[in-house]
Amino acid sequence: MKKRLGILLLCLMVVLSLVGCGTNTSQEAVDVDSGEVEVGESYVLKFGMVAGTQSNEYKAVQKLVEEVKEKSDGRLTIEIFPESQLGDDRAMLEQLEGGALDLTLAETGRFGIWVPRAEILGASYIVDSFEHLQRVIYETDFGKELHEELINKHNWRVIGTGYNGTRQTSSNRAINSIDDMKGLKIRVPNHQPLLEYAEFVGATPTPMAFTEVYLALQTNAVDAQENPLSTIKAVKFYEVQDYLAITNHTINDVNYIVSEHTWNKLPNDLQAILKDATVEAAVYHTSLFVNEEKELIEYFEGEGVTVTKPDLAPFKEAVAKSYQRYIDDIGDEAQKVLDAIESVR
Q1: Helix boundaries (H) for the chain
Q2: Residue 155 CA: distances (Å) to CA of 21, 96, 149, 198
Q3: Rounded distance, CA 297 to CA 78, Å?
Q4: What is the pLDDT of residues 189-201, one digit of tens each?
Q5: How far apart are CA 130 and CA 293, in angstroms?
Q6: Is 227 annotated as a binding residue?
């Protein structure tokens, strides 16, 4: 009798354990044919971004979503929230910091709000190319220490960096040299490095909301504006500006950032998958902008825009005088950043 009761209890335990496995399919997958149980929790992450669904940024993030889902066999999926649905870039970074959002994009210079020395990388003509910027971020002590500080103080882990276009200057008169910048009323964002670009090359910086720029150019309330070529095309500034100068004054990067709260919740294998897929997405991100910029010059010329290529040496020399502000405001740490930039030029 006791033996029979023991067998019944054992059978009951087996049944209950199988029922328990079946109540959480998101955590465990049961192979009925082989009898093997493969344990692996699934995760759904939220990716917030400012750019819209037609942008290169969105296309690159879509690639990330596809790669992650495929490589994780569906255990890790990402939902995209474009067009500032979750707020502007600053708001989304703050959401990552608190753990309310999982992933977002931000340029390195944007970190300057919280880590002042990072703003230096957003200064005009501070780096020669995106490759130079990459070396500063990933090969110098400054870059490595910055990334550690972002993790330790703000819960922002940078897991990939892509090229996000170079800012150029469109205008209602030809810019063949720095002399043509004198007195030019140029719209810039209310962002100190870009205000200084306009000021130090002799123009008159005029901050205004982005939504007001097209009309201001059309009515000659301002003479010029500056933006990456992709933006100039998307907003059709070429319709109200006859000239485009290749000033190459600011090289934009974009970081793929995951909340440290999210990162620590993921098992090692999914961390590796997310990291590898992000690196691939960042490479694709870069290629989209590089290829597009080559095509856009021809596109603008086809639309009747005159493209000029002024000698940039005088531009760089003039704007370099603005870098003293960083030393005045930040001190020795700013000089260390400037030295780091030079060390990998």
Answers
A1: 2-22, 56-71, 89-98, 130-139, 141-154, 192-200, 213-218, 229-234, 260-265, 268-302, 313-320, 324-330, 332-343
A2: 34, 7, 9, 35
A3: 35
A4: 999 999 999 999 9
A5: 14
A6: yes
107 known member of a binding site: yes
Residue partners of 330: CB distance under 8 A and separation at least 6 = 116, 117
Residues 6+ apart with CB under 8 A from 194: 124, 167, 188, 205, 226, 250
Residue 39 confidence (pLDDT) = 53
Residues whose CB falls within 8 Å of the CB of residue 60, separated by 6 or more in sequence, listed in order: 162, 281, 282, 284, 285, 288
Res 34 pLDDT > 50: no
Contact (CB, 8 A) for 200 and 318: yes
Sorted by sequence, the CB contacts under 8 Å of residue 249 that are 6+ apart come out as 124, 125, 166, 167, 168, 169, 197, 226, 315, 319
Q: Which residues of 184-202 are buried (b: 16+ CB within 10 A; e: fewer)?
A: bbbbbbebbbbbbbbbbbb
pTM here is 0.84
Q: Is 187 annotated as a binding residue?
A: yes
> 110: annotated binding-site residue?
no
Overall fold of domain 40-343: D-Maltodextrin-Binding Protein; domain 2 (3.40.190)
Residue 284 in tokens = 């694709």
